[in-house]
Amino acid sequence: MNKKPISTYERLMQDPEFREEYKTEYKDFALSELLLALMDGDDKSVRKLAKEAGLSANTIQNIRSGKQQDIRLQSFKNIVQAYGFQIILEKDGERIPVA
Asked: CB within 8 A of 36, min separation 6: which ones?
């Protein structure tokens, strides 16, 4: 019986330690990319966004430049709300806004 060779990704994901680290880093990356997409579609200045989100201009600039990828939930929520969005948790059809 011929065994199909596995990819490097599949081989690495078999290691529990690697898999957990990958999941954590991917979540941070996905949040950063979402924020960058929000910021890219708007002409708000760094200072205006920082003021609306209650964050420092330096924090906003670091997020935009990719220097800061580990974003606190509160900071993420503040930026999202500054763009008029809200965060909603959904499970089995039940929706709960994150206040």
From this structure: 63, 64, 66
The distance of Cα 50 from the centroid of its chain, to the nearest Å, equals: 18
Q: Give CATH for domain 8-97.
A: 1.10.260
Structure tokens at 7: 């990819």
As a whole number of angstroms, the distance between CA 26 and CA 24 comes to 5
- pLDDT bin (cut points 50, 70, 90) of residue 2 is low
Number of CB atoms found within 10 A of residue 52's CB: 15
Cα separation, 39 vs 76, in Å, equals: 12
Q: What is the pTM of this model?
A: 0.64
